[in-house]
Amino acid sequence: MTDDTPEVTAERPDSAFRVTGTDHITLIGSNEEDTIEFYRDMLGMALVLRQPNLDDPNSTHLFFDTGDGRILTFFVQEDRQSNPQPHRHRVGSVHHLSFSIAAEDFVDIKESLEAAGHGFNEFDRGIFHSLYTRDHNGLTIELSADKFDVPDDRRGEVLATAQKLRVEDGSEFAEERHLEAALEELGIDAEKYELPDADSGVGGV
Question: I need a surface site. Which of 78, 87, 161, 162 has the fewest CB within 10 A?
């Protein structure tokens, strides 16, 4: 590790203040119908609040519960047409959104995407297993299943330990073996989920 390499650790930094979590993320959406059809009816997020955009009363603000109380919101207008073309990325743009799915539902979710006409790619990302699809506006959506039943309050610690082990053995990226070794080192007895075999997906979505 060189002097200019940032330290990777689960310890909270000595900063002026600390945030306590993610409250919500807001995106500019197209129209209400298409947004609800994908995020509520396809991904199963409850629509929990609908009201005018307080900064622009000509648009509507939709609030979706992503499944754990974290909220995803959209500013939509009825005259905006959806555009499924992939996004062109620039500094500051959103590359993709990732949502957790239950490992036991993985195969059923693949079948549901296919039945709804949503194409997807499936990859084993080493420390998790993912499906990648796109919403009605071309935003890449990752549906990610954990490989192990890691307690939520230990996730950062487990990943930071896997990172340490990855660096120690000179691997280019974190693999399942690093995750298993991290769990053992930390004394976490986590159940391993059954997931299908898939390509590693190194190098692209």
Answer: 78
